[in-house]
Amino acid sequence: MLRPAILGLLLACAASLGRSAVILEGGWPILWTQTAGQVADVPSHEGVVTPDPWHFLHRMSLYRLLIAATDPFMGCMGTNATDSPIWGLPLEFGWMLTSGRLADPTGASTCGLETGDKMCVSTHSWWGCVSYFTSALPFLSAAHKGFMGAGVQVQMQVPEGVTDYCTTYADCSARFPDAMTKWDAFFQGLLDAADSPLPDNEKKDALLGLYWQAQMASTYASSACSARQSHYSSEEVSFAKSWGSSGEYVAAAHFQSNLEKSSLFITPLPGRVLKTGDTAPSIADLSEEENHTLYIFSWINSANNMLGGSLVRMWRSAMCSVTTREKGREMLEQLLLNPGFATSSFLSIISQMTTSC
Predict the structure, then answer these.
(1) Peptide bond into 72 cis (omega under 30)
(2) pTM of the prediction?
């Protein structure tokens, strides 16, 4: 049984991190060893598996079980046990916990607070709501495809009185058909990859394409969470929006969000909820890396808005082949890792890459 507990975009130099959020313990996502190692360890009722995604360990267990079940089909991703792109999700979820973003933003309860139930994920948290779409939905899809065992049925628990979260495969498919269809396509793609004649690099690129299509479909579906943003400062809301839109760039480039890569770009995310008056890159109690992360997020989002959304469209157009996607990933790393890489260079290179497609 579960024991009681005691992705984004940015790449930064891990050796120089300041007070950024802790997302790893012993090389694994935080509290990883306290999560369920097999489906039988998850609560069940009358033969139906019933995880409680409003408990941090239960939701983190969904990721651990998902990674374990799909790893045998991830051979084209690499030879390491941590090469699956799914690793970015538990790292991101851990950052949400340690940065206080899963706590009740209304102040009406102690859910998620250090002084309250630290493992509680508030149903009022915008971040907790968005995370639901990239944890519960893919898990339900994977179970439907048989990855959790033949005939395994799953129903997510939900607190009494909360009605705006889907809880079963059928329920989620009815409410969010595009997201569930794309997760189904990704998991079917994993099953089909075993018999695919494609070389590993092309197989990998194709699977990453399916994975990011599903991820982005979940992001679009999480617009259902928008009302919860009213509980946060305008600075936090602005960051949340730019954080969400940054997925467009990593998705189009088919970023392999394995454990190593994901830890580099999630670690420098802001280690606390932003308050009124926080203006990067000059937030005194955040590290240089956190300030830089916030500044770049803001710049990319502002540039796209000023261009009427054409920056995202240009980027998507430029990511037209395995080769250009590889160059795109390298360019994103330069933009975010190398302070000397001018943002103007980013724009000009995108224009050049688009003409080559």
Answers:
(1) no
(2) 0.91
